[in-house]
């Protein structure tokens, strides 16, 4: 549209120039009418050519503009379709990943439940050997009435149990010396000539730690003067 306006302005300027030229020519007595007419005709021909070019340009601009807009519109539609396809693909990928994660979570939860259910399987399997030894010792004592042999059998079982506990990181809490509330549980106080103030006098129940953690404090009595 801007080019069309410029061409129209040029045409108007040409027409004004022709009119001015005519007025000046009529006043000039030395110029022949034939020369004047020829020049005027040339200018008019040029003006007509300019008008025709302007018309053709405007026509091309209008039709070309529609074509351009059509191309841009078609390109825009293609881009929209492509974006919609990409969004649909991402949506499907998200739903698939979400389903995979849910299945993974369920599988891990089942594995955790399975581990909880059979967490003590190893220690129970080890204790079964001690149970077998107890049963053998009892059976042997019933047949022979030999309590010394029974005692030896029980001592062997106790050693076996302690070995199992040590293998699992279980250690007996020391009860020598002063009372320590982190490891000992005082159930009473008593006077003692052999012990100092706040020292442990008696052990009523042994305590144990497992890999550094107190799983059962030692139950003791404490000396008070």
Please give a structural write-up.
- With 225 residues, this protein is of the alpha+beta class.
- The protein has 3 domains: 2-111; 120-168; 170-225, Nucleotide Exchange Factor Grpe, Chain A, domain 2 (Roll).
- The chain contains 4 helices and 6 strands; from the N terminus they run H-H-H-H-E-E-E-E-E-E.
- Strands 1-4-5 form a 3-stranded antiparallel β-sheet.
- Strand 4 and strand 5 (213-216) form a beta hairpin.
- It is elongated, with a radius of gyration of 56 Å.
- Mean pLDDT, to the nearest integer, reads 78
Question: Helices and strands, in N-to-C order?
Answer: HHHHEEEEEE
Largest sheet, strands/sense/barrel: 3 strands, antiparallel
User: What is the strand content?
Assistant: 5-15%
Helix content: 55-70%
Number of helices: 4
Structural class: alpha+beta
Number of strands: 6
Protein name: Protein GrpE
GO molecular function: adenyl-nucleotide exchange factor activity; protein homodimerization activity; protein-folding chaperone binding; unfolded protein binding
Biased composition (Basic and acidic residues): 42-61
Biased composition (Basic residues): 62-74
């Amino acid at each position: 549209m801007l080019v069309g306006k410029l061409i129209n302005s040029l045409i108007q300027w040409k027409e004004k120039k022709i009119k001015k030229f005519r007025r000046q020519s009529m006043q000039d007595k030395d110029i022949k009418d034939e020369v004047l007419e020829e020049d005027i005709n040339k200018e008019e021909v040029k003006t007509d050519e300019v008008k025709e070019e302007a018309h053709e340009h405007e026509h091309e601009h209008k039709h070309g503009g529609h074509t351009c807009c059509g191309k841009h519109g078609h390109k825009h539609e293609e881009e929209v379709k492509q974006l919609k396809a990409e969004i649909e693909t991402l949506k499907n990928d998200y739903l698939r990943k979400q389903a995979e994660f849910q299945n993974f979570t369920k599988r891990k939860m089942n594995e955790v439940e399975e581990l909880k259910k059979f967490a003590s399987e190893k220690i129970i399997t080890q204790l079964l050997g001690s149970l077998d030894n107890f049963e053998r010792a009892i059976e042997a004592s019933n047949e022979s009435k030999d309590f010394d042999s029974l005692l030896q059998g029980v001592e062997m079982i106790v050693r076996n149990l302690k070995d199992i506990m040590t293998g699992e990181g279980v250690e007996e809490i020391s009860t020598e010396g002063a009372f320590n509330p982190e490891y000992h549980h005082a159930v009473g106080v008593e006077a003692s000539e052999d012990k100092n103030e706040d020292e442990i006098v008696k052990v009523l129940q042994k305590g144990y730690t497992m890999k550094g953690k107190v799983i059962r404090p030692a139950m003791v009595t404490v000396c008070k003067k």
